[in-house]
């Protein structure tokens, strides 16, 4: 099996609310669509939004649960200043600032926001993981 991650689907409580939030971040929704789901091209990855109950049913699990989900999504930036700008943009779009940006123990600068469904996003400047022109990052050799 090749190491690959191609699509991340977020189970959302209200698809319209989640869609408005991500569009308010400035992310264009893909024209590729099906009823009741939204897709966004994010670099070489696809982010999709799908109703939580339907996603849980598809996986055969209960939709209940809240609090820390055991993962975060990350948005790497090219500078410390961009971290602050992205966090401010997320707040203006309706996100919740969870942790203001500060110097990180690993040598970078990061903070966190939550989307309308409580999904945590880390916004980080890491001197070893600067995004390329297409928005992707490459691990050092």
Compact summary:
By secondary structure, the protein is an alpha/beta fold.
The global form is globular
The number of distinct structural domains comes to 2
CATH superfamily of the largest domain: 2,3-Dihydroxybiphenyl 1,2-Dioxygenase, domain 1
CATH class of the largest domain: Alpha Beta
What does this structure look like?
The chain has 141 residues and is an alpha/beta fold. The chain has 2 domains: 1-59, Roll (2,3-Dihydroxybiphenyl 1,2-Dioxygenase, domain 1); 69-134, 2,3-Dihydroxybiphenyl 1,2-Dioxygenase, domain 1 (Roll). Helices cover 22% and strands 30% of the residues. It contains 3 helices and 7 strands. The protein has helices at residues 15-24, 52-59, 80-92; strands at 7-12, 38-42, 45-51, 73-77, 96-103, 109-114, 120-125. The chain has a 4-stranded mixed sheet with strand order 4-7-6-5, covered by helices on one side. Strand 5 (96-103) and strand 6 form a beta hairpin. It is globular and about 40 Å long. 18% of the residues are buried. The model has no long low-confidence stretch (mean pLDDT 89).
């Amino acid at each position: 099996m090749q190491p690959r991650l191609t699509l991340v689907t977020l189970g959302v409580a209200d698809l319209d609310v989640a869609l408005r939030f991500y569009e308010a971040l400035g992310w264009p929704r893909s024209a590729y669509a099906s009823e009741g789901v939204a897709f966004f091209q994010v670099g070489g990855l696809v982010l999709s939004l799908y109703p939580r109950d339907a996603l849980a049913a598809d996986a055969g699990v209960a939709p209940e649960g809240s609090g820390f989900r055991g993962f975060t999504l990350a948005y790497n930036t090219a500078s410390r200043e961009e971290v602050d700008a992205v966090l401010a943009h997320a707040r203006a779009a309706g996100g919740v600032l969870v942790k203001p940006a500060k110097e990180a123990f690993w040598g970078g600068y990061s903070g966190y926001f939550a989307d309308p469904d409580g999904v945590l996003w880390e916004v980080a400047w890491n001197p070893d993981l600067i995004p390329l022109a297409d928005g992707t990052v490459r691990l050092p050799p």
